[in-house]
Write a structure and sequence with these properties.
heterodimer; A: about 110 residues; alpha/beta; B: about 160 residues; alpha+beta; about 30% helix; globular
């Protein structure tokens, strides 16, 4: 299963729309993309996971690393997600307590 | 193969496969265990998703351990997956040749709400395995580690949504 990442600007936010599965094979590409955005001084990031079919701890670790990087610049990384199976992974690991998770991109932008 | 169960012999189906210790094969392992769970009508789709996640975590650990031990060698031994299937129960072992692993010696990470936790990208796999499995055991072998996981079909997924 491949991973596809599309990046778009939405107001102050850089939105990464991710499709596919995030694991040890594909997570490095996500990490590179997130680091590239931070290097371009994009510190307000949204990871849209509506089309993500699978994520494990390797993928979660990448998101943790990205959150650390943007917070170092007073930025934020929020998640768009409604898939209950993916949400469950955030809940088990309690990452739903450190990432703001919204049902839609509009909800993120509306603050 | 059969196993005695209160005087009734229950057939145990075995599936074994060796996979190269490459990141790309973790998706294959997920596909296999997902198909095996789907073949047992007692396993719900949500429980099958638990198995896919747990096997992904165990294979990731095995591959990382094995590759870290390869020291640049061009020959990397495979990881071994073994599935024991009985109605309502799937036992999975994932064996690597990565030199051994003691979960008791894992680094303790700060609590998830501690800002210091953001300095650690790892440390989430074992808690996930503990949550998803009905029994979990790490066994040291001469060459590496066997992760033995048991999954029962659950009426619910043990989690309130």
């Amino acid at each position: 299963m491949d991973l596809r990442i599309d990046v778009a600007e939405h107001g102050d936010w850089s939105v990464l729309q991710i499709r596919g599965e995030i694991d040890i094979a594909t997570a490095p590409r996500l990490r590179e993309q997130l680091i590239s955005l931070v290097n371009d001084q994009r510190y307000q990031l949204v990871v849209d996971m509506e089309a993500v079919e699978f994520i494990d701890s390797t993928g979660l670790g990448v998101l943790i690393g990205a959150l650390k990087r943007v917070r170092a610049h007073d930025g934020d990384l929020q998640v768009v997600l409604t898939n209950t199976r993916i949400l469950k992974v955030f809940e088990i690991t309690q990452l739903d307590t450190i990432f703001r998770i919204s049902p839609t991109l509009d909800a993120v932008v509306a603050g | 193969m059969t196993s005695p169960d209160a005087g009734v012999e229950t057939e145990v189906e075995l599936v074994e496969l060796d996979l190269p210790a490459k990141p790309e094969v973790v998706a294959v392992a997920r596909l296999v265990v997902g198909a095996l769970a789907a073949a047992d009508p007692m396993f719900s789709e949500d429980r099958a998703a638990d198995l896919r996640l747990a096997v992904s975590e165990a294979c990731t650990n095995a591959i990382q351990a094995q590759r870290s031990r390869s020291n640049g060698s061009t020959v990397i031994e495979p990881i071994n997956l073994r599935f024991e299937l009985t109605p309502g129960c799937i036992a999975v072992t994932v064996e690597d040749h990565g030199g051994g692993f003691d979960p008791g010696e894992l680094t303790t990470h700060p609590n998830i709400t501690d800002p210091e936790r953001l300095h650690h990208e790892g440390g989430l796999g074992i808690p996930l395995l503990q949550f998803l499995t009905d029994d979990l055991e790490f066994k040291a072998t001469e060459e590496g580690t066997v992760v033995a996981m048991t999954f029962l079909s659950r009426a619910d997924d043990g989690f309130e949504h």
